[in-house]
Amino acid sequence: MMGRDQIRGWRRTMVSRMGELLALVLSFALLTSAVAQDESEARSDKASGLPAINLIGIPEKAKKEIQEAHDAASADDRNAEKLGRLAMLYYVPAPISAAEVFHKASEADSKSFRWKYYEGLAYASAYRSDDAIAAFRAALALDDEYAALLIRLGDLTVSSDAEAAEKYYRRARDADPKDARAPFGLGTCAKKRGDAGQAVAHFKEAIALCPQFAAAHGALADVLEAEGQFQEAKAHRGERDRGTVPPPGKDHLLIELLSMASGGTELLQTAEGLAGSGQHQAAATLLQKALERAPDDVNVRHAYGVVLDKMGRTQEALRQFSEVLAVSPSQMETLIYLAQTLIHLGEYQLADSLVHEVLQADKSNLRATRLYGGLLLRMRRAEDALACFQRIVDRDPNSYDGHMGMAIALICQDKLDGALESYSKARKLQPAAADMSNRLLAHLVTLAAEQRHPTPETTRELCAPLGPASLDGLARALSVAKLTDESEALQRFPEFVVKRVAALTAAAEYDDAVRMAIAMLPPTGDVAASPVMSRLRERLSSSPSDAGMRHVLAVVMSRLGRSDEAVQLWEQAARIDPKLEVVYLSWGMDLMARGDYSKANEVIRRGMGHLPESAWLANALAWSLATAPSKELRDPVEALKLATRAVEKTQRNEPGVLDTLAAAWAASGKFKEAVQAEQDAIRLANETWRSGGVPGYKRRLQLYENEIPYIAESK
Question: CATH top-level class for 363-453+464-491?
């Protein structure tokens, strides 16, 4: 697994890797040619007449599956299920052979829509359009309401018979009104017959159903440009460049077919479409199955990491990206996504190093430049961020992201005249300008929270973090500039913040909820004058059973030094939901931070009474019993027992838990074991990109190497 100490190593290997990559591409081209030749001359099993494909280059597990499926189908060549399974395994590496076997399966079960539909898909994948159309029409006779089939028939006939294609698309839209591909097809038909008005309407319908539909944005831009609507056309071209493929609609048969694949463009595009439409679990499952068959496929592993990151499974995403980079350090796209995931984790310094290295290797990489600008804003380096976004605008004067980034960077520097100028340019480039006011508010509030992450020490001048005063000042400036919608939206920020805090709390994203709440409080901590705090209290009053929100507010109060209020809120939360683990953890750690280890132990043991299997509560109590300032409160024997249990329950995969184990070993006088555990914590933290605790781990390691236990300071 590639860790943070290897960041610089990837760049040194890029030149040699590019040579290897070129050789690999040439080899693959020759292999593809050979496979194509074998495909066109597919030999047949003499006994069964089933085609046997060339297995060179196919992953071992997939190869074994194919061989077993071929043997099973050969032994029972009238069994549609066995024939169909073999054809499904053939689909990606040998689509023509797959089509032949699907045809045999449909002969064995003439009433099966599934095999005939798959036969059409296989021929379409091999660019045998006439054969695909014939198979699809035969499938249509078995099921004339399967929307995905109707769309594929439309796609195959639109260039030769737009009138027939239009009928297919209309039937598809009737069968599944939510599939964006049907109105896109209708727009294509309207465009072919010169009906610009209908084309625009249909393309916009497709975009409304699937906002990230890249082809629909591109087609709409073409029509708008031909009609002289250049500004709107440019905006849609920008959306096209940021967009993806549409989801496959209700095509469950395609998902089933691709779940047997070990890779391929269609698999990746389908997963991208699913993830882009919010169907993250379906995309993850599809990619995970492919990786089980082909664990060395870096493209599938990269895509899996992207989906995991979108699902909030950041540590798993990091592992996938690290495995890709361990095999192929020059995968720029993976490096960028890795940095993006680190940003989501708040590991800004690591992300900074990584994106900086990418840009040193490729200064023209706009995606990396855009990501770096956003990262610099989070790190409160607004002046540097402005320079990043200016470079984007210099290269593409019609870049929405560039102008919007410049606007935000100038807002962070309180340069509102320039900010309004850049924002106005961005506004003109955004097709959904009506929603710009809410997007601006969401962007600023989210950034304000993200600027509350700890930032690395630097000699650079940092801007002040955004807060309520920033939003109030900007609202006034927007009002003067006659941008009324934006001004009114910003004035509603307290309601927006409370809704976001509630949503984050409901999703158990407690740290993010706390950061957002604190970001929108006055810097003086005067909660009585805060509209956000008053609305949070109102929400608590109207939600007597919301333990999570009480916990969030307790942490906020603790950070503001209002310990008595924090304790009251934690008590309420614990009574409402005695099994809400985070309450006892935060409350206990808060008590330790204030030096009250006795009360902390009491709170944590109370939580363990409700959650006896909790690794995190065991870890917290072990830390207290190993490091308490008072000798009377330390119990090295119980600390070691609890820490060992916590390490086992977390499968040695949590650096902080290994750090606790080291402290427990040291408290027991076992310094050799303490050194080993602390070294393990440091290694794991570096490998899994969790660097926040590493400075503390290293300080404690020095103590243990000198046979000195770590004891917390008295308060």
Answer: mainly alpha
- List 213's β-bridge partners, or say none: 244
Which residues, in sequence order, are CB contacts of 289 under 8 Å at separation 6+?
259, 260
Closest CA to 565 of 605, 535, 537: 537
| Domain covering 601-715 in this structure, CATH number | 1.25.40.10
Tokens encoding 681: 């914590």
Give the start-end residues of each E strand in 204-291.
Answer: none
Query: How far from 674 is each of 586, 622, 636, 667, CA to CA, in Å?
Result: 26, 14, 13, 9
Tens of pLDDT, residue by residue over 43-85, are: 445 455 899 899 888 889 999 999 999 999 999 999 999 999 9
Cα gap 469→690, rounded to integer Å: 33
* Distance in angstroms (rounded) separating the CA atoms of residues 576 and 573: 5
Would residue 194 be called left, alpha or beta, if left means φ above 0 and alpha means ψ between -120 and 50 degrees? Answer: left
Bridge partners, 44 (sequence order): 51
Q: How far apart are the first and last CA of the chain?
A: 41
Between CA 502 and CA 508, with CA 504 as vertex, the angle to 5 degrees is: 110
pTM over 0.70: yes
Phi-psi region of 580 (alpha: psi -120 to 50; beta: other; left: phi over 0): beta
Contacts of 494 (CB under 8 A, 6+ apart): 520, 531, 532, 535
Instruction: Please say whether the beta carbons of 423 and 472 come within 8 A.
Output: no
Cα–Cα distance, 332 to 361 (Å, whole number): 9
DSSP state of 51: E
Domain boundaries, the chain: 363-453+464-491, 601-715
Condensed to tens digits (0 to 9), the pLDDT of residues 92-135 reads 999 999 999 999 999 999 999 999 999 999 999 999 999 999 99
Among 455, 486, 430, 312, residue whose Cα is nearest residue 377: 455
d(CA 271, CA 145): 24
d(C-alpha 604, C-alpha 206), whole Å: 54
User: Distance between CA atoms of 715 and 9, rounded to whole angstroms?
Assistant: 44
CA 304 to chain centre: 9
Whether 601-715 and 363-453+464-491 are alike in CATH topology: the answer is: yes
Q: Give residue 89's Cα distance to chain centre.
A: 29
The widest CA-to-CA distance across the chain, in whole angstroms, is 88
For residues 166 and 198, the answer to whether their CB atoms sit within 8 Å is no
CA distance 61 to 52: 17
Residue 706 DSSP class: T
Banded model confidence at residue 424, pLDDT cuts 50, 70, 90: very high
Q: Is the dihedral of CA 617, 614, 546, 507 positive or negative?
A: positive
Q: What's the CA dihedral at 650, 656, 661, 664 to 10 degrees? A: -140
CA–CA dist 141, 143 (Å, integer): 6
Closest CA to 533 of 511, 506, 559: 559
Q: Can you tell me the distance from the alpha carbon of 129 to that of 120, in angstroms, rounded to the nearest whole number? A: 9
